[in-house]
Every structure is written in C-alpha cells, then in structure tokens.
Amino acid sequence: MIRRVLFNLMAWAIVLAVAFPLFWMVVTSLKPQSELFRRPPTILPEVTTFEHYWRLLSETNFLTYFQNSVVLSVVTTVVVVSIATLGAYSIVRFKYWGRESLAFLVLFTYLLPSVVLIIPLYLMLVGLGLSNTIFSLVIAYTTFALPYALWLLRSFMAGIPEDLESAALVDGASRMGAFRDVILPQLLPGIISTALFTFILSWNEYLYALVLVNSDNTRPLTTGVMNMLISSFNVEWSLLMAASVMMSVPLIIVFAFLQSYLTRGFGAGGVKG
Amino acid sequence: MIKNKQTKLERHYATLGMMLIAPTVLVFCAVIVYPLVSAIYLSLFDIYTPTLQGEWVGLDNYRELLGKGEFWASLRTNLIWTVGTLSLQILFGIGMALVLHQNIWFRSLARSLILFPYFISTVVAVLVWRWLFNDLYGILNHLMMAAGLIDMPVDYLGSMPNAMISVILVGAWKYFPFVVIAVLARLQTIPDSLYEAARIDGAGPVARFFDITLPQLRDVLVVIIMLRAIWDFKEFDLIFLLTGGGPVTSTQTLPLLVYKEAFSLNNMGMAAAYAVAMMAVMLVFMILYIRKTGEKDA
C-alpha cells in the first residue's frame, strides 16, 4: 500500500514537472507587471488580473492574426481532407497502373523537409503574384498537410472491411453510391481525426508563414506573436504569455472534447505507418 | 462472355479510381514534385534573392559547399542535436509510458498533461521556455540558485555548451510525448500471460522488462526511432526561435543554414544546393523507413 502511494506520488511529480512550463505560462499571464519581477517569484499570483488579455485584444494586432489563422487552418483542412479522402479511397480500393509508386511517393513526401521545397515555392508564389496572401499559405501548407492526411486516411481506409463494400455492390449500388453510403460513415471517425491533426499542423506552422508573408494584415498567429517579441522595445512577458495561452485555446478545446480522436490518429498514421 | 464483361467492369473501375486520385496527383505535381525538381535545378544557378536574377554555374555550388567548413560544421551540429534530443526522447518516452501504463491516480488527466507539449505550437513552447530561461527573472535560474546548484544566474541560450544543451532539452520536452503515446499503445497489446509466466519462473521486475517488455517493443521502437530521427534532423522552428543558430553559429543546423543562405545572405542557388545536400543525407533514413513500412504492409 505504501509502495503504491509512493509510486503514485513519484509519477505525479514527474507529470507535474513536465507540465510546469504550461502552468507557468498561465500564471505569468495572470500576474500584474509589478509582480512579475518580484524576487523570489510568487508561485500563484497574489493579484489576479486579466489586463494583459484585455490589452492583447484591444491594443495589438492579435485578433487579426487570430482571424487569419482560423481562416488559413480551416481552408487548408477542408481542401486537404476532401482531396485526401477521395485519394485514399482510390489508393486503397482500386487497382490501376502506377498505384504502388504513388503510395511510395506519398510516404516519401510525408518525410520530406520543408526547407527543400521552400525556395522553389517562394519563387513560384512570387512569380504568380500571390506573395503576402493567405491563399499562398494555403498552397504552401498543402505540401506537408496533403501527404500527411493521405497517409493517415489510407490506414483508416484499410481498416474498413472490404466485405461491406462488396455487399453494397451486390445489392446493386454503384461504386460511388457504396462510397457515400457505406465507406463514408465508417470512415467518419478517421476523417475527424485526420481533420484535427491537419488543423493543428496548419495552426502551428511557422517556417512558410515566416518566408511567404510579411504584412501585418495577412500574418497568422505564429509569426504574428513572434513578431511581438522581436519588435517590442522591452519584452512584456505577461503579454506574450497571454498571447501564448490564447493561441493554445483551440488546442485546449480539442483536448477537452475530442482527445480520443487524437489518440486514434496516432495509432493510424504516426506510428503504425 | 462473362469474362469479357468483367474486364469491362474492371476497366470502368480503374477509370473511376484514376478520376478519384486525379486531384491528388494534380496537387502533388504542382506543389511538391515541381518544386522538388526545380530545387535541384536551382542549385545549379547563382541567384541573387532580391532580383531573382541568376546565371548557370553548373556544379560550382556543390564544389564550394563540399569545400566550405560551414556545411560540415552544420552537419556536425545537426547530428549532435539529432542524436542528443532523440536519445532523451526515447529514454524518457519509454520511462513515462511504463509509468502511465500502471494504474496511477487520475491516469487520463496525467496522459493529457503529458501529451500537451507535443500539440502546442513550437512558437508557444519557445516563448514559454525563453521566459523560463530568462537570466534575470526566469524561474529556472531562481530555482537552481535556491537549491544551491549554481551561485550565479546561468546564460542558458547565449553561451556554449549551454545553448546546445538547452535546445536539446527543450526538443526532448516537446517531442517525447510522441514516443510515450506510441509505446503506450504497444504496451497495452502485450499479453498478460507472458508476465504471469515470467513471474512464476521467478523473474523480477527488471528481468521482466528486459526479457519481455523490451523485445515486444522492439519493432515499434525501430519505427519510432527512424521517424523521429527524420523529423528531428529537419527541425527548423524550435532551434531557429530559441537561439537563431547562435551563439554565432554553434547551434546552426542544416535547415537553419539553408534559411540563412536564402533569405539573409540572398544566395538562393547556394541555399538550394545546401537543401539538396541535406536531403541526400536524409535519404538514407528515409529509404530505411520506407523499406520498413513496405515490409510491414506486405
């Protein structure tokens, strides 16, 4: 019994140590500026204030960045998941020339470093006159999101028993009818899981946003918030921590309500391959 | 007659299959294959970024790259970073997975907390850690001084070898949850009977770990290590935002070198050559991984 309690305490000590930076982020964002530089630091804020959040929303460009990030991530997710669902269905359930090498190409690009693609993509998007638009970022994000989504959906699709589709075909359904009525409902958890991962990937992306966008109206959150750190004369840590918390809000929502989909996605694409 | 009809249906299905894959193929060609080929093509030019004017220089970029110390230094830094952060991720990840596999209090809450660093944006992770690392008001210096570990505040990111150690540690903190989840999923499928048998044979917890758990985890660990090695090798955001490659160039890995060459030094052609060279190094891992997944599919 004592061993069990000790083990539990030890386990939780480690868990809390890992989570401490996140706890500290929240605490810092709630402290008034004066309390921030107190020595020794206060572990819980003596005075809790939401002034940094208020200032973030009213005095900085944070809301614009947030809006850009939402548009960017939603559009990328919708486009990528729609294309990838059809693509995965085709790769898994149809037979035609070039199918195998295509699957190989998907896996290859899934592992490809962005820095290799970024130079030609930059030249291409500047050439098309798309630089500094959210649309250019949607195109750039497709380069990593599409192989990822395809790979994930491919393994979800492979998990659906083929008999179901055959039964529908025997009953006289067309191939696309079977896809709509049989495959899609079965695939739905996989699609949600893939969409969540794609959304998170796009939400967190930094490099493409850094290179392709440099006007404040089109910047997403990652480069926007980082810019607040670099361009400020003296760094206001509590403001930055408030921005970090706000930036993580969508993730917290996903975590609170949809975590099972995340773990499922892990099993499907991340590791099993 | 019947055979003929079937091939007709099969042909119809093949056409449908190709129509379904067409959008994927189109997008792939436009945003991945074309840029990939043109990256290789660009590496044969000398291009000035602001004007995008350039001239053909053939393999000169590669000749210069292989002769220059900076490429080799960055490759070395890249390997130190990858090996360092990857070993910590694996060790800590397996340990944490074993702990979370036990029946601890509020297990699902503990799992969520552990998972969180992996999902937050690198920008958030970096901001938080830079605040923790702050030399004057950072909590880390304060705690270490209070514990008597150090007398003077430490400069975590501005001097060597501290900067490299800090980057490796933050990398391990951010990415070890991936290992935890993957290992945890595998642990749950190891049959209890194996442990029962070992217990009857008198094997202690340590012997059970090395004789049962580790061999059972072997396959999944090989995949995790390869995948994480590839991802850590190409990591840009974390290092760029924490140290910017500094102090001077001591944490400058290859992706940072490519970025610097292209967008600070304005040598697009040279940067493309660096990128292609980096990809060549990674290709070994990538082929190994693709082979491995191919085996499992078959």
From TrEMBL, chain A:
Q: Which Gene3D superfamilies match?
A: MetI-like
Presence of keyword Nuclease = no
Predominantly, its location class is membrane
Instruction: State the CDD domains in the record.
Output: TM_PBP2 (cd06261)
ABC transmembrane type-1 domain location: 66-258
Subcellular localization, as worded in the UniProt entry: Cell membrane
Q: Which UniProt keywords apply?
A: Cell membrane, Membrane, Transmembrane, Transmembrane helix, Transport
In terms of superkingdom, the source organism counts as Bacteria
Q: In what way does this protein cross or attach to the membrane?
A: Multi-pass membrane protein
Which segments cross the bilayer?
7-27, 70-92, 104-128, 134-153, 182-203, 237-258
Secretion signal span? none
| Family according to the record | Belongs to the binding-protein-dependent transport system permease family.
| This protein's name | ABC transporter permease subunit
Automatic annotation (TrEMBL), chain B:
Query: PROSITE patterns, from UniProt?
Result: ABC_TM1
Major subcellular site: membrane
Database matches in Pfam families: BPD_transp_1 (PF00528)
Q: Which residues cross the membrane?
A: 20-42, 79-100, 112-133, 165-185, 238-259, 271-290
Instruction: Look up the domain of life of the source.
Output: Bacteria
Q: Which InterPro entries match?
A: MetI-like (IPR000515), MetI-like_sf (IPR035906), UgpAE/MalFG_permease (IPR050809)
Q: Where is the ABC transmembrane type-1 domain?
A: 75-289
Read off the Gene3D superfamilies from this record.
MetI-like
Query: Could you tell me the membrane topology recorded for this protein?
Result: Multi-pass membrane protein
Q: Which UniProt keywords apply?
A: Cell membrane, Membrane, Transmembrane, Transmembrane helix, Transport
Could you tell me where this protein is found in the cell?
Cell membrane
Record keyword Kinase present = no
Q: Which PANTHER family match?
A: BLL4140 PROTEIN (PTHR43227), DIACETYLCHITOBIOSE UPTAKE SYSTEM PERMEASE PROTEIN DASB (PTHR43227:SF8)
Of which family is this protein a member? Belongs to the binding-protein-dependent transport system permease family.
Q: What is this protein called?
A: ABC transporter permease subunit
Upper lineage is:
Bacteria, Pseudomonadati, Pseudomonadota, Alphaproteobacteria, Hyphomicrobiales
